[in-house]
Write a structure and sequence with these properties.
The protein has 365 residues and is α/β, with parallel strands linked by helices. The chain has an 8-stranded parallel beta barrel with strand order 2-3-4-5-6-7-8-11, surrounded by 8 helices. The protein has a two-stranded antiparallel ribbon with strand order 9-10. Helix 3 packs across helix 6.
């Protein structure tokens, strides 16, 4: 079929709405990239809806949770029986349970915020689950029939994960890009019972997605194991800190940050300024000293002395001061919203995320 010049003109005109539809969302303000970790939308069971909600909020950059990534890629779902009435943990609908990036890592099989159980890596491939403060109502013992169904589902997940390729993850990235959202980081939480092949699986997912770095909540013992693998792939890993300063194997104290960074060239920091403040440390000073090792920030508001997560502006986290520092120094790494405070009655995740984004805009004005 041949086309005239007029035909090409018509085609160009009809393509304009599509170009606008897929235009990148700009959530960079005064040079500071504001995005969100998809964990913020954990109460939404459908990962496809999370993409739409991020676009509605106006977020142009995502730190993608590995369970959301796998769900979008078509991983078989795990049975939901035996789960308590928890608060929508990351693993819901994704084949495994996971927890907040700032939570201490737990062994597979430990209960999580969703009241679910993390499949052991040997049964279901990579285990991206980590333990978290608080319970979700517990987990009822499985009947023999349910256990058999669980074993069968875990085997299906393991088979699916073994068959994934770079194209599997490229297709996920395309879904975000089509909505105007850049996938900058993969959050792949790891724990001490993982095998090396489970760690490698996370790196292959990250490389397929084409992210700039990985983030992870894990222990110092795992950070030491991960370091040479990160060096091999030449991919930065940002270790997420929290405020469990009483546990020497967690990323929480200044010494623990120094230790993990010393393990390897590609061991960095995903600094959660809320948890850092709750641990009674100065986020502004830390960023100034270690900005070249920071992969990204998590933004939330907490009080010092291990205080609770609060609506922004009610805590003591120097969110404005940190964002102003990023604006002044042009460090370049993203500041990602992590919504963890209680959603007020009558509100929604999308409404609260819009408030947080506006808070960032106002802080940078």
């Amino acid at each position: 079929m041949s086309y005239t010049r007029r035909d090409f003109g018509k085609i160009a005109l009809t393509a304009v709405p599509l170009a606008r539809l897929y235009a990148n969302i700009n959530s960079k303000f005064d040079g500071v990239q504001i995005g969100a970790i998809t964990y913020s939308f954990r109460s939404i069971p459908d990962a496809e809806t999370i993409i739409k909600d991020m676009a509605e909020v106006g977020l142009g950059e995502a730190e993608l949770m590995s369970n959301h990534c796998e769900s979008l890629a078509g991983m078989p779902a795990m049975p939901s029986f035996g789960r308590g009435g928890g608060g929508g943990g990351r693993g819901r609908g994704a084949g495994f349970a996971a927890a907040a990036p700032g939570a201490p890592a737990a062994a597979p099989g430990a209960p999580t915020a969703a009241g679910a159980q993390t499949p052991p890596p040997q049964a279901a491939g990579a285990d991206a689950g980590a333990g978290r403060r608080g319970g979700g109502g517990g987990r009822a013992p499985l009947t023999p029939e349910q256990q058999a169904q669980m074993d069968q589902a875990q085997a299906a997940v393991a088979k699916w994960r073994a068959a994934t390729t770079a194209d599997t993850w490229k297709a996920v990235r395309k879904k975000f890009n089509s909505a105007g959202i850049e996938v900058a980081l993969l959050c792949y939480n790891m724990n001490d019972r993982m095998k090396d092949e489970d760690i490698e699986y996370g790196f292959q997912m990250a490389k397929g997605l084409g992210v700039k770095a990985m983030s992870t909540s894990t222990t110092l013992t795992m950070a030491k194991r991960i370091a040479p693998i990160a060096d091999t792939h030449k991919l930065m890993v940002g270790y997420h800190g929290h405020d469990a300063t009483n546990d020497p194997n967690q990323t929480a104290t200044l010494d623990s940050y120094a230790t993990l960074m010393a393990y390897g060239k590609y061991n960095g920091v995903n600094l959660d300024i809320g948890h850092f403040t709750a641990a009674n440390y100065d986020a502004v000073a830390f960023i100034k000293e270690h900005h070249d090792k920071i992969t990204n920030l998590h933004l939330k508001d907490r009080k010092k002395g291990h205080g609770d997560n609060l609506p922004w502006g009610q805590g003591e986290t120097p969110i404005k001061e940190v964002l102003q520092l990023l604006k002044k120094e042009k460090y370049g790494f993203p500041a990602n919203i992590e919504l963890e405070y209680q959603i007020p009655e009558g509100s929604t995740v999308v409404a609260e995320m819009k408030k947080c984004l506006q808070y960032c805009k106002d802080a940078l004005a």
